[in-house]
Design a protein that fits this description.
It is a single chain. The chain is an alpha/beta fold. It has a single domain (17-208, 215-248), classed as Rossmann fold, CATH 3.40.50. It has helices at 26-37, 49-61, 76-90, 115-143, 164-184, 202-205, 219-230, 249-253, and strands at residues 17-21, 41-46, 65-70, 95-98, 146-151, 189-195, 240-243. It has a seven-stranded parallel sheet, with helices on both faces. Helix 3 (76-90) runs parallel beside helix 4 (115-143) and helix 4 runs parallel beside helix 5 (164-184). The protein is globular. The termini are far apart. Pfam families: adh_short.
């Protein structure tokens, strides 16, 4: 968006715009700061206004451009207002990165799960993304394209005995992202389900399965993957699953993308399976 205060005749650099939801902590904060350092104008979205202001201040202190606003992704009207406010300041969103997420508080088997907490996880992790899609994607369609990154997890594609709400939400998020990718393919919409690996965050360190972990994913590798996605280097993987730590932008760029590879699907028992 041109700067109306710039002197006449002076060229103003127009930065690509990334909107990061859930940007005030964990992986989201790393991505907001990293995208700004990589030359993106960043819209910072989070529930806590003070935390949003802190991230915006950190970006600006590092020489980047950011604006922020507080909104709860489970509130559809609030998300619409927040996206409109951010785009009014920065310009249209080129890249939406959804890091807003919730994990149930207790690590229990599914039949002991609390229904209210289960529903709360789904509201944040799935319904929240739908609200973001409704706020951002129509503009992308009108402009001829855009990219979305969903923060995914290995829980989206493999079974485990606990955290059933989180796993169900990430599988549903994968399917929602795939639907957006399929519906928007002809108009330039690209969607990526990206696991960040295991970054050391308050969420990951609270999980018993990581209690003894000593090797953690470098947040810089997560930023590098999202930057590559934002630049269009990995568009062949739209609708598919990527995992930082096992994948790199270079390895994916060289990988063959065939059939239903890296998608959420039913595995046949062999070539004689009618599902094959």
């Amino acid at each position: 968006m041109p700067d109306p205060l710039a002197p006449a005749g002076l060229a103003v650099e127009v930065l690509p715009v990334a909107l990061v939801a859930g940007a005030t902590g964990g992986v989201g904060r790393h991505l907001a700061l990293g995208l700004a350092a990589a030359g993106w104008a960043v819209g910072v979205l989070g529930r806590d206004a003070a935390a949003v202001d802190d991230v915006v201040e950190d970006v600006r202190d590092a020489g980047g451009r950011a604006v922020g606003t507080a909104a709860d992704v489970t509130d559809a009207a609030a998300v619409l207002r927040a996206v409109a406010a951010l785009e009014d300041e920065l310009g249209p969103t080129d890249l939406l990165v959804n890091c807003a997420g919730r994990l149930e508080g207790e690590e229990v088997v599914p039949w002991l799960a609390d229904p209210e907490e289960f529903a709360a996880v789904l509201r944040v992790n799935v319904l929240g993304q739908l609200h973001l899609v409704r706020a951002v994607v129509p503009g992308m369609v009108v402009r001829g394209g855009g990219r979305l990154v969903d923060l995914s997890s290995g829980s989206a594609h493999k079974d485990g005995p606990t955290y059933a709400a989180y796993a169900a939400s990430k599988a549903a998020l994968f399917r929602l992202g795939g639907a957006v990718a399929a519906a928007g393919a002809e108009v330039g919409i690209r969607v990526f389900e990206m696991s960040p690996g295991v970054v050391r965050t308050p969420m990951s360190t609270a999980m018993a399965q990581h209690a003894e972990r000593t090797a953690w994913t470098d947040p810089a590798d997560v930023v590098a993957m999202v930057v590559a996605i934002g630049r269009g280097e990995l568009d062949a993987f739209s609708g598919r699953y990527l995992r930082v730590g096992q994948d790199t932008p270079a390895s994916l760029a060289a990988a063959p993308v065939r059939g239903r590879a890296r998608t959420l699907d039913v595995l046949p028992w062999g070539p004689d399976d009618p599902m094959a």
